[in-house]
Write a structure and sequence with these properties.
Elements: E1 3-10, H1 23-31, E2 35-42, E3 46-53, H2 56-70, E4 76-82, E5 89-92
Antiparallel strand pairs: 1-3, 1-4, 2-3, 4-5
Length: about 100
């Protein structure tokens, strides 16, 4: 899989972080063979979920449907890069925003 998709959850916009315990398992049937989750890191201001895929835009749409069902899509941003790359391409939210980084 050539791309790393990163889903960034902003902690201040989350009512509850309990979903972290099960989100990867919830995504597996939705993603099928198109992607695989690769863990997450927890930081003071955000939580980053990593997904390996060959088609980051399509995979994000699938993930977004799960996030919408949980009501947490508004506190999220997403971007992808080539595995091992430094430059991200933002895909969510669709409106222009500041540059996506993993600080």
């Amino acid at each position: 899989m050539d791309y790393e998709l990163v889903i960034k959850f902003y902690r201040k916009s989350l009512d509850d972080e309990a979903f972290l315990a099960t989100i990867e398992e919830e995504l597996k049937p939705v993603l099928g063979a198109s992607a695989r989750t690769d863990g997450y890191d927890v930081r003071p201001k955000d939580i980053n979920l990593f997904v390996q895929t060959d088609d980051p835009r399509t995979v994000f749409r699938k993930i977004k449907s799960v996030l919408e069902a949980r009501g947490i899509e508004r506190g999220v941003s997403a971007a992808y890069r080539l595995v091992g790359g430094a430059q991200f391409t933002s895909i969510w939210p669709t409106r222009p925003m500041r540059r996506f980084t993993l600080d």
